[in-house]
Design a protein that fits this description.
Elements: E1 4-5, H1 12-15, H2 21-30, H3 33-51, H4 58-88, H5 93-118, H6 123-131, H7 133-199, H8 205-222, E2 228-229, H9 230-248, E3 252-260, E4 267-268, H10 274-283, E5 292-301, E6 304-312, H11 319-323, H12 325-338, E7 343-349, E8 353-361, E9 366-367
Parallel strand pairs: 3-5
Antiparallel strand pairs: 1-9, 2-4, 5-6, 6-8, 7-8
Amino acid sequence: MSVSKEIDPNTLETTAPRPSAFGKQIVSFFAQKIVYHSLLWMVYIALMLIVNSASQGFWFTLINVLIHTFFLGTLVYFNLYYLLPKYLSEKQFFTYFLLLFLSTLIATPLEVFCLYQNMAAYPAAQESILQNQLSHLIFMFIVLNIGTVSTIVKEWLTQQRIQRDLEKRNLQSELSFLKSQINPHFLFNTLNSLYALTLKKSDQAPEIVLRLSEMMRYMLYECNNKVVPLDREIQYIQNYLALERIRYGSKARIEFQYIGEEAKLYQVAPLLFIPFLENAFKHGLGHQLSGGFVEILLSVEDDNIDFFIQNSKSEKKTALYYKGGIGLKNIKRRLELIYPNDYDLSMNDMEESYSVNLQINIKPTNTL
């Protein structure tokens, strides 16, 4: 027997190894722009020394590489801190590339002149540097364009990350807002039922208070999580229906059945099914004097949660009955946000009844 357990993202912060304080200092040190820029230039100089190693000696080659690196670095930072923000960021493309080319055209002869002076003892090297001026210009212009492209890509990735963070925060805020609308809406309906029975001085009032307290505890302390065990959601539904059975008595037939795999193995978004119950009672049984019904079937099979609810219709049909009210609008939006590609919601408006069928593809939290 093997047991696999789905990792809860909320526990990653406590279970994942945390970097030490020294490790954080190291990462912070190398994340400084001046540090990693210096390292990049050191690597570039080392590579140039390897590529341009000559028989004239190490120090002669090093001076030539440093001269080249000085002019290239000047162009790179001129492009990075002046041309890019002033012209390219303002979408002045022609002006940007013209100034980039002119700056390269000015810097290249100056670089060649300095290299030529350093090669005074080597006439053959001087002649070679003069003949390769165009190659120097093209090389430096290509390097600058590579820097431009890398900066644009880096900026784009940063903007994408910011956008994703913003969308994530907006999503969390919207889900919290929708959930906050569900809770008061349900509480209002439940308190109305309790008030009606209290006026009758019913002996069932203590049971209502007990069930209501259980439901409030669930709403206040468990529904703040992104998901809850399915068996807890079922218990909430059963408490809800128990209150409605007390309210309607023999005037209505209220049935609930759960079939399938063990409910505690699955997790769903909290209060996911309640708006359908609210609409069934408020817009269905709420307009009938007797003979009404609400039938609910919840099943789990092959990682698919199937929720079906059907209620009788009265002759008094309001616009809200067909539109579903604020609760149904909220649940549609929550489904789009939480299960965008893993749910199917269908509604059937028949002559004497109204039904809703919600199917969600979901994986169990534990698989034996």
